[in-house]
């Protein structure tokens, strides 16, 4: 799941450290694609300090939600539906349809949460702003990170740009997908393909929006306290 879908499960949570913890694995990967952190394997390093323990709880919640989501029938069925729509427009692209449909389902879910006012993006960013950088730095250092400068450079840009506000428009989801693909392929799409991608997402969203909340209800029912 993407940022806002993870936030959905903690949108009533007043603990900003736990809120950012639920998206921290993705923030880390965006900042350092080669970082592999496993704080859940050394919990004793984080449990004695309240802020660090909340970050850990959020991190573990992220892993729990992703595990349920990616193993669900809902995800596999929706990915297959979107893949069929994408295959005709990816014939001349190096991008794997399975990869694009995987990320596409996740971003369209974020879009639907926003346009249907299931989450408040500005409140999400308020939580990010409220977290103490010193606690984040300590958490990442205890995870084994030796250089956090790049992470905080990305995080500060992420917060100041409020990039997720762009998810309110479906065409921006297409450009977000293009940017993600550019991390793996030098020239993933022609500009025409981005336009065609938006067209296919418009078709797909009418399929997904009928029962998209089912997966959130399913995950909520399975989450541990």
From TrEMBL:
Top-level taxonomic group: Bacteria
Pfam families associated with the record: ACP_PD
InterPro entries referenced in this protein's UniProt entry, alphabetically: ACP_PD
GO MF terms, alphabetically ordered: [acyl-carrier-protein] phosphodiesterase activity
Gene Ontology annotations of biological process type: fatty acid biosynthetic process
Protein name: DUF479 domain-containing protein
Species assigned in the record: Pedobacter polaris
